[in-house]
Design a protein that fits this description.
Blueprint: H1 20-23, E1 26-29, H2 45-50, H3 52-58, E2 62-65, E3 69-70, E4 82-86, H4 93-105, E5 109-114, H5 124-129, E6 143-144, E7 173-176, E8 181-184, H6 199-214, E9 219-222, H7 249-252, H8 258-270, E10 278-282, H9 288-295, E11 304-306, H10 328-341, E12 345-346, E13 352-354, E14 360-361, H11 371-374, H12 383-396, E15 400-404, H13 425-436, H14 441-448, H15 498-511, H16 513-517, E16 519-523, E17 530-542, E18 548-558, E19 564-565, H17 572-577, E20 590-594, E21 612-613, E22 618-624
Parallel strand pairs: 1-2, 1-15, 2-5, 5-9, 9-10, 10-11, 14-15
Antiparallel strand pairs: 3-4, 6-8, 7-8, 12-13, 16-17, 17-18, 18-22, 19-21, 20-22
Amino acid sequence: MTRPAPLVVSPHHVGDEPDWWRRAVVYQVYPRSFADSDGDGIGDIPGLTNRLDHLDELGVDVVWLSPVYRSPQDDNGYDISDYQDIDPLFGSLEDLDALIEGLHARGMRLVMDLVVNHTSDEHPWFTASRSSTQDPKRDWYIWRPARQVDGLAPGQPGTEPTNWGSAFSGSAWAWDKDTQQFYLHLFSPKQPDLNWENPEVRRAVYEMMTWWLERGVDGFRMDVINFISKTYPLTDAPQGEGDLYGNAFAAVANGPRIHEFLHEMNQKVLAPRLGHVITVGEMPGATRSEAALYTDPARAELDMVFQFEHVSLTDGPGGKFDPQPLNLVVLKKNLADWQAALAPVTDSSGVVTAEKGWNSAYWDNHDQPRAVSRFGDDDPAWRVRSAKTLATILHTHRGTPYVYQGEELGMANTVFRSIEDYRDLESINHFHERVRAGDDPAAVLTGLAPISRDNARTPVHWDGSEKAGFTTGEPWIALAPDHGTVHAAAQAGVPGSVFEHYRSLIALRHDDDALALGTFRLLAADHPTAWVILRQWRSPEPDETGKNRVEQLLLIAQCAREDLPLTGEGGLLAALAAEGLQAGQWTKAEQVLRAGDPDVQPGSGHAGLPAVLAGWDSVLLRRRA
């Protein structure tokens, strides 16, 4: 193993202080869609390395790399057959070493995706496990005999050990004809679940994680990590009328040993390291109270979690593929509730005295549609401004912001014309399952189009050329139709672009205590279009006059096409006065950023409250006392 390249502290990024990760901004790379270096139409590690200057210029501090491990690619790399090798599709271990060196040389860090709820069915562990009921690795996975049902032979549909459904459609159990038992797969049949009750499994995972840290990796994003502790015995789950399978969530998520397992992982893998290892756990269905436990520093489990409440608010009666209109008031309150649940401890004067948890803040990722299409307005007339306003809203929340590739360009959802346009296993399986159940194919496609994961997986637009600078070959999935106009070459260094707005926000987070660490308050919670946030930081140490310095940031954002009056009769400020916000204190406040005016930047000299915010405009103000 090569000696890892050391981190070179850079003024463009956070440093190496113990809490560096609280000021950091993370950028997610979905490798097959980021940049292709060899013309095969699939992004790869050398392609990412070649584009590091883009990320350095943007100012992000951590790159989260979705799986590049050796894999049959049944679920685009989330089915891993070798945890300690790189799939040739993406490069080699030497390519990964070069990526780490390139990141560290620029002051950035690397987070690897850790997928240990399940492996590929082609992993040597599972190959051994399924070879015999007596194999030493048989208990590394979750095997059960068939249910005895009169008139049905073992292995036939209806003899599964439980009625659980898979997240990717169909039963969560697959029959192994050679050993005459079922194995559990909460996702694809090619993704069998590991048995974390077995200490040998946990030991093998911890050894693998340590191996990557010693290679220079700086942290882990843990895929569906709250599924590793199941509730035993495994029994049938509630099944709604018309549902094909039972919903096993309560039996597989946040199980009775989950905190024990995560603390053990922390103590055996993370705690012994010099310097902080950043960790984020993807936790579908995690509640605010559960997240407070997972992220409490005193418990030594994880730094933060990915929760899914805000990206599930549009789910209809038929689930995520039955999307309903977004209610902005509900969205604002949901995110504010998460802020309150993981808020810091403050003393009577408002000084933050201790952290009790930490949020992650994101609009989209490789499993979600594009932010500007889902939460903003992707009409060409409104795309740029709404993308910038969404960015300001997200980065004004307390917690670590995550930027998904292309988000910094305002990339929007793509266009799907038929099921043949899709590549995502979840989308394809859902279509065929619903059509077999008798649903109208056109209606199923209508539900898929705005919410499919493939919206986020179209290639990044680097320039306006035919292949968008992504590849010289044929892209593995079609480019979004706006790639000729929405691309990095048209935005980097261009005032008013989405890219430059993100760059300003990220730089502000590095330097501004109120934005990174201050308390959070949502105002005008019931307003149907305005999003108003107040952040405050009171210095714990008095200045030379003996006073504790106070800084406040006020964000006012209009999340609709109509103008938003602020001053005068009926203006928003009158309503805010009822919540204790004194407009007079903000008449000379610094305008730090404004989505509709690129001239407004930190230190630009713009000040005061505007009388009106135009549609999808936003203004971030700062005052010190």
